[in-house]
Amino acid sequence: MQGHGSSPDGNAVELSNHSPGSASADGGEALAGEPQGPLLVYDGGCPFCRHFAELSELRGGITGLRIRDGRQDHALRRWLGQRGLRLADGAVLIDGERLFHGAEAIQWLAARMEPSAALLRLLAALMKEPPQARRLYPLLLAARRTALGLQGLPLDPDQVAVRAVQ
Questions:
Q1: Each residue of 49-93: pLDDT tens digit?
Q2: 3-state secondary structure of 147
Q3: Do 60 and 51 contact (CB within 8 A), yes or no?
Q4: In whole angstroms, what is the distance from residue 27 CA to residue 7 CA?
Q5: What DSSP assignment string belongs to 48-105?
Q6: Going by C-beta distance under 8 Å and a sequence separation of 6 or more, which residues neighbour residue 119?
């Protein structure tokens, strides 16, 4: 499954419009003035996604990695959506002018990690090669769907949450 921000060979594409680090009228102001370095945009409503992102930032060994809860950051989510990158379809990794989505985002992280946490070591080993990451990523999305469903949260952060009447 190829991410929207990637070319057919699995490499990231360069941004043609404003970069997320520059102020713009299309939502890019969400990242204006922030330090440079890779940014992982994840779904904070998913406990698995949140745990992976927090571990990656704290113990992944990737210099300068920052994380952002895309479910809470409406401007950033809108900016990504204008580029065809929906958080509902997977995490996004922004590295300078390059965007990685879904399996490619996780593979980018896994290939660069020097993890000190056991869970990250396992995920890095499983996801560091692009073909394997593309095969396994749908399982991560299934776990995300299950976790969000159990919490009554929509898969798409842009949709209103509908909680079951208890």
A1: 999 999 998 888 899 999 999 999 999 999 999 999 999 999 999
A2: helix
A3: no
A4: 24
A5: HHHHHHHHHHHHS--TT-EEEETTT-HHHHHHHHTTT--GGG--EEEETTEEEETHHH
A6: 51, 52, 55
Pairwise CA distance, residues 132 & 115, whole Å = 19
- Judge contact between 35 and 137, C-beta under 8 A: no
Name the nearest CA neighbour of 101 among 131, 81, 75. 81
Task: Read off φ and ψ for residue 16, nearest 5 degrees.
Answer: -100, -20
Tokens for 59, please give them. 């113990």
Rounded CA gap, 79 and 27, in Å? 5
Pairing state of beta strands 13-14 and 39-42?
unpaired
**Separation of CA 154 from chain center:** 17
**Considering the entire predicted model, what is its pTM?**
0.78
